[in-house]
Design goal:
eight-stranded mixed beta sheet; 8 helices; single chain
């Protein structure tokens, strides 16, 4: 078995196997060199790769073999399979994201080393407060908020990750990475202007080291004011905040509905 067998498939994985199906059809077996390479990339067993090829075959030839793909993967696949340029771009992005998820470390942009880490490890970056007590309070509040979100969004502990970025001069720490939604999340204990401005700068700094596209969001304890929501919107950074026993986001649930 692969280390990720049993974990729901990401859209990125569909595109990689779908491309294999388009190029080679059903003429692949579990011991095929390319199947083995893809299995290693995705952290899946070779048999799971050939089975997924069968899902694509049944999609194009209904009534035969395993059940066809469906839902959002099918909808997006219909857009990609007829557009070579779009599929090539999606494949490049998919491979870069999967390499990060399944390797101990990958080279990033600007000479950085990028790796997945446990989201339990706190950030070592400075915060926009000045006293030792204020720093301690902010770190505790952020940790509580992060854990509340993780318990709600990822109760099995298999979806959300942290990312460590080793730059030539320092190590940066991304609070949360959701590969399903393609989202980097910075956690802040306050919705004050300075805190949100700092979060925007951090997120933009993180993103430039990654070799794939991601969206950005800040997780905060309450909904920001209309003025500061405007700041985040202008920067193309979403806001996520608690609502009753769950959470909501500023994009109409776009990021929190991704499965």
């Amino acid at each position: 078995m692969g280390v990720r067998d049993g974990i729901p498939w990401l859209h990125d994985e569909y595109w990689i196997v779908g491309d294999l199906w388009l190029r080679r059809g059903r003429a692949v077996r579990s011991n095929d060199a390319e199947v083995l390479e893809i299995a290693h990339l995705l952290g899946r067993s070779p048999d799971s790769i050939t089975w997924r090829v069968g899902n694509f075959a049944s999609t194009d030839n209904p009534g035969r073999g395993p059940k066809p793909i469906s839902g959002e993967p099918l909808k997006k696949w219909k857009e990609l399979r007829g557009n070579r340029a779009a599929l090539a771009r999606a494949l490049a992005q998919a491979r870069a994201r999967m390499e990060l998820l399944t390797n101990e470390a990958v080279p990033g942009s600007h000479g950085a080393g990028v790796r997945i880490v446990s989201p339990d490890v706190p950030s070592q970056e400075p915060v926009t407060v000045v006293t030792r007590e204020a720093v301690r309070h902010a770190e505790q509040a952020e940790a509580v908020l992060r854990e509340k979100f993780r318990r709600w969004r990822d109760p099995k502990g298999k979806r959300l990750h942290g990312i460590s970025i080793g730059t030539p001069l320092s190590t940066l720490r991304i609070d949360l990475y959701d590969p399903v939604a393609g989202l980097l999340i910075e956690v802040k204990a306050s919705t004050e202007r300075d805190s949100l401005r700092f979060a925007v700068g951090q997120l933009y700094d993180y993103r430039r080291y990654l070799d794939f596209e991601v969206d950005l969001a800040v997780l905060v304890p309450t909904k920001p004011s209309d003025d500061l929501m405007g700041l985040l919107s202008a920067a193309e950074v979403a806001a996520i905040w608690p609502r009753a026993a769950s959470f909501t986001d500023s994009e109409g649930g776009r990021y929190l509905s991704a499965r």
